[in-house]
Write a structure and sequence with these properties.
elongated, about 700 residues, four-stranded antiparallel β-sheet, 3 domains, alpha/beta
């Protein structure tokens, strides 16, 4: 069977591809305006048309990757004639592509950074800086001429004003350069922050579980600020230093070739010494930064678990443990500081000694009449200018290395291709009759990236029937929550497949799939914003009436109305001020408004008291109507109502059936029920005793 799907554009024009199809006129693409830039190709169906989603979203032929598919339910399909075999060996193009992929190298940090820079502002800032440097290196000669004129009695107001004008011009150019470079730095920093934030949002959860959120926040703040300062300050310093050295040497050569030769003879050895010292300092700085990061990360972990720390009265113990890590970091930093001060002092000693030698030689030239007093003053000013420029370049090299490291870290995150691309894959209209909502795990094995040797699922098989509630029970650590994360495609299975209506979810667009699947977790998460914003989080275009209707359905309207500003009450600190039950009802309202086809409930009532549980349970009963539901629960009262129950032990489904069927088997489920009933009885006895 063949059907027409919309594919990512490759090489064939739309018109030519459409004419080449052998399809009935009833085969059509909905929303054709969105497909005008696409290529149409025939795809083979795995099942009769109209049976499941798998019949319409399949792997494409080599022409492209499925992006969007919308077929009318009355479509008729025809078998086209077989395509002629490609000319030549089929292995050559594949081998060539593989060779090209191997030859392709990742972009360097400069290639990554260039598109983010505002080159117009940078060029304007660099030119203004260069102009200011050019003016600055001419001032010593002008000053010398002014001094000579005063000595000879020819000093004029015009000559004084000319020098003062140059000083004013230099200051104006430096001010303009600062304005241009600050603006360019702010724009670059803003673009980096936006790209980094968007890239992290697109990553799979496994990346965030391996990479500490604190490290990502550091990338977002510290590294972007370093690059912003690099554009604002380091570029200006580099242009100023290079221009000052080159312009100073030129002016010095005009003044005295002998002194210029002596300067060029002395400067390189000093520069080599400083360069070697910088390399050693960079290595020491990296070790110091690693030690400091260890202390910061430890502090972050303690702050996140502050409740546990205080519950076990371990404040003093944590102070000691943090102090030990801080002492190591401080010791490393002290070594870096001591080394830096030592070599910086040596550098200044060498440069000052060189200036003394040059000054003595200049005095000798002045005594022999080869250099007058005014030229001697000009020489001293130019020498200081050249020395400052060399020092700036050497000290700048350390800042540049830190900037390159920051740019590399940002590039590694921004250009990282997520393992689960959110916008790549096939989609289907949410109201399509082909979207039934049946999901399944087929022989799925999975281990979290942070624990690769400890599989959470091992050959798991589970099917969720459309319109039914399937409860999953089992001991803690059996893989129940992992099942929900795989069904929502937050992670990819290591082996096996996860399907929606028979289609492998890896062929579907992750963002679209998460619109089909809704999740209500044990610990409801509310984001900063108003109550209304949180309810409409999955559907930002919802009207106030729709938001209120969802809140009423979830038994949340009454307590929301009692808040200070009702639905416009600002929530901070994960819904601070609201009880767990109230937050859970807002989360249920959010899921109701989103209206998912498949609903994953991960122990939504386990942390509630009896009164809150009753209100939440009523809301859940409304939420599950007509949906495919996976319910993870420990409480027997919640499980017995399910249409089917699956027992998950050690990452595998060991039993499946209704409550009565599983109790009759007297297997793992019956054992879990008996254990819970004994615990309930013991709790009751304890309350009677008290």
């Amino acid at each position: 069977m063949w059907a027409t799907l919309r594919l990512a554009p490759r090489v064939a024009p739309l018109g030519r591809a459409a004419r080449s199809l052998h399809c009935s006129p009833s085969v059509s693409l909905l929303r054709a305006d969105a497909c005008r830039a696409s290529t149409l190709v025939p795809l083979r169906l795995a099942a009769p048309l109209g049976s499941t989603l798998a019949a319409h979203i399949l792997q494409a032929q080599p022409q492209g990757e499925v992006v969007c598919q919308r077929l009318q339910s009355t479509a008729t399909v025809f078998e086209p004639p077989p395509a002629p075999p490609p000319k030549g060996s089929g292995s050559k193009p594949a081998a060539k592509a593989e060779a090209d992929a191997e030859a392709e190298e990742p972009r360097g940090w400069l290639q990554f950074l260039l598109p983010l820079l505002d080159l117009g502002l940078l060029l304007a800032g660099a030119l203004c800086t260069l102009g200011a440097v050019g003016v600055a290196v001419t001032i010593p000669a002008r000053s010398a001429a002014l001094l000579k004129a005063a000595k000879d009695g020819f000093l004029t107001v015009r000559g004084v004003l000319r020098v003062l004008g140059l000083v004013q011009l230099q200051a104006s150019l430096r001010m303009l350069a600062s304005l241009f470079l600050i603006k360019a730095g702010d724009r670059t920093k803003g673009r980096l922050k936006e790209k980094l934030f968007a890239s992290v949002l697109a990553q799979e959860l496994g990346f965030v579980s391996v990479t500490r959120p604190s490290a990502l926040v550091a990338n977002l703040s510290e590294d972007t600020d370093k690059l912003g300062r690099a554009v604002t300050q380091q570029l200006s310093l580099a242009v100023n230093a290079v221009g000052g050295v080159l312009g100073g040497v030129y002016q010095l050569f005009q003044l005295s070739p002998q002194l210029t030769g002596l300067t060029l003879l002395v400067v390189p050895p000093i520069a080599l010494f400083a360069s070697a010292a910088h390399k050693v300092e960079r290595k020491m700085s990296r070790r110091s930064a690693a030690a400091s990061a260890t202390a910061v990360n430890y502090a972050g972990e303690v702050f996140n678990q502050l409740l546990t720390v205080q519950a076990y009265a371990q404040e003093e113990g944590e102070k000691v443990r943090y102090g030990e890590r801080l002492a190591i970091a401080d010791a490393q930093q002290q070594r870096v500081t001591l080394f830096h001060k030592t070599w910086a002092a040596s550098f200044h000693l060498l440069t000052n000694s060189a200036m003394v030698v040059a000054g003595c030689y200049a005095g000798t030239l002045a005594r022999t009449g080869q250099l007058d007093e005014a030229a001697l003053v000009s020489f001293m000013q130019l020498s200081m200018r050249i020395g400052e420029g060399v020092a700036q370049l050497l000290f700048l090299s350390n800042d540049v290395s830190k900037t390159i490291e920051a740019a590399t870290r940002l590039q590694s995150v921004i250009e990282r291709e997520p393992l689960i691309p959110p916008d790549r894959g096939a989609t289907l209209d949410m109201s399509s009759p082909f979207l039934r909502g049946e999901m399944a795990l087929q022989n799925v094995s999975f281990a979290y990236p942070s624990r690769p040797d400890d599989p959470a699922l091992d050959g798991c098989n589970l099917t969720l029937k459309p319109g039914q509630v399937t409860a999953v029970v089992g001991p803690s650590g059996g893989g129940k929550t992992t099942v929900t994360r795989l069904l929502a495609r937050f992670y990819e299975p290591d082996a096996g497949t996860v399907t929606l209506d028979g289609a492998d979810v890896r062929t579907l667009q992750a963002r679209w799939l998460r619109g089909v699947v809704g999740v209500v977790s044990q610990e409801p998460v509310l984001l900063p914003g108003t109550v209304a914003d949180n309810i409409a989080y999955g559907r930002p275009d919802a009207t106030p009436a729709q938001i209120e209707a969802a809140a009423r359905e979830s038994n949340a309207h009454e307590f929301i109305e009692r808040l200070s500003d009702g639905y416009q009450t600002q929530l901070q600190g994960d819904g601070g001020g609201l009880s767990v039950g109230q937050r859970q009802r807002i989360a249920i309202a959010r899921a109701l408004l989103k209206d998912p086809k498949v609903l994953l409930l991960d122990e939504p009532t386990s942390a509630l008291d009896a009164e809150s549980e009753a209100a939440v349970q009523q809301a859940l009963d409304r939420l599950v109507r007509g949906r495919t539901v996976l319910l993870i629960a420990h409480r027997l009262s919640t499980v017995v109502k399910a249409d089917a129950i699956a027992v998950l032990v050690g990452g595998k489904v060991v039993e499946r059936g209704t409550h009565d069927e599983l109790m009759a088997k007297k297997g793992e489920y019956a054992h879990l029920v008996a254990t819970q009933m004994r615990a309930t009885d013991e709790s009751k006895e304890g309350r009677k005793f008290n």
